[in-house]
Give the backbone structure.
Amino acid sequence: MRTLFIAISLLASTAAYSQNVPQITVSSEKVKVNGSILYVHKVKAGETLYSLAKAYSVTIDEIVRQNESLKNGLKEGTTIYIPSSTPSSVTPSAAAPSTDVAGSVVSQVKQESWELSGENIKKYSKKRHKVKSKETIERIAVKYKVSVESIVAMNSLESTVLKKKQVLYIPNELFLQRMQKEAEAVQAAREAATAEEAAPMENAAQQEAVEEAAPLKGTSLTYILPMGLADTLGANPNYMDFYAGALMAADSLRMMGKEISITLIDQSKFNSANIPEGTIIGPVRGYDMEKFLPLVSKENIVISPMDMTTGKLVAGNSNFVQIAPGQDDQTENLMDLLATKTTLGNSVMIIYERNGADLALVEKVKELATDRGIIFNTLSYDILEGREMMEKIKDALEPGLDNLVLIPSNSEAFVSDVVRNLNLLYTNPLEENRRSVVLFGTSRWRNFETIEVDYFHKMNLHLSIPYYVDYNRKHVKDFLMKYRALFNGEPTPYTFQGYDITMMSCGFEQTTLQSKYKFKKDNAGDGMRNTGTTNIVYNKDYTISVIE
């Protein structure tokens, strides 16, 4: 399972032990779970509870208490949670400097032309220390009550692996103050550079995404997610991915000069008597949200991040935000798309399953088509008639015209049968029997497994879908490069969703990866629901394009 191994500062702290023990990388990522600050650590080969306890400056008992799964032993590849030995908060502003000797701490000190000279040793060092056999930099830092990064910076170290009899100078309080000031200066310069880069984006023709008026502009976000931290099987990988995306969004916001605070609450340990302030993202499941929403103050903004069924909670709850576009909104957007393609040079045919499960959807489609002035014909049949229907479908379609065929069905079996018949007509070698077809379907078709995708491309399937990642966008490419560098893997839809919702919650709803946000409030006193979908078309060259 891929672990959540990311810091809001996107830096990594390195801890090394003796040459006989595998190097332990201390995660800079801290999550706040039920008021406690925990590191998220992925166990590597050779690591032991003893070595982890030493690396994180905690006791073995403290680690075991936070991880029920350790009753079965420490296993490589599992994710465990380690208490923080010092108070902290999961916010960009509180992120600690990296101790990576090749990274930011050393480079920040060297910006001031730091040199370990006799004068600087006298001014900034409180002790000269000679390394003993098997002594680690972590032990030395604990002994003198200073940080590893300060020893690294003081001595301009290129590695945290020490040698016997190596001489180190231990920094004093004056040096620590110097480090803090220089870190603040670097941060200010970085923010100034980011602002300077963003200035030309005021020209809409040059920008891909800018901050616009948005329904939400929160600075304090709390995520109530089913993380499964107490589960003996380990944490839920999907919501670890979701939270990873949220933290990457927080880092992007920090680079744009917007500081936010993030708190994570494992849903299994949530206490309804202590509801946090600010924007709350979750609970995830509809039935949990129904119980939770009445308990929340109207001062809170509550966001339902995934479940489409929570759309019914919008009415009468002015502080509620529904993210997943409902079936009706998806259908309206699909019919708007169909209307833009309807001309005198084509014909519209609606084919649906007689007595099928989607009759309400069929009636909705007919109503919307009429409202939009679309002239259409209909054809219905039972799936058992499928083998006998090709001739009837051929007669229903117009020869010599592009037939825009809409199939309002979420039944994979029925859709498969109709599409198979249409493909036979589309590719018929006899011109008098051939029919030109352009397909329109529902978003659920993308999950179908038994239909040849080749058919979709041949007949230019058009869909209006709630989530779509356009890998040609620069913003998406940049995100992927950053993610792959951190995780050595690919993000999941949960990762994209966590990123998008966090960006939207802070007012950057145009800077998203897979979602489109277009909020609608039906009545005064209601909450907002997202009606935004992305229109796509399957092309004959086996690509997929976004229809703007």
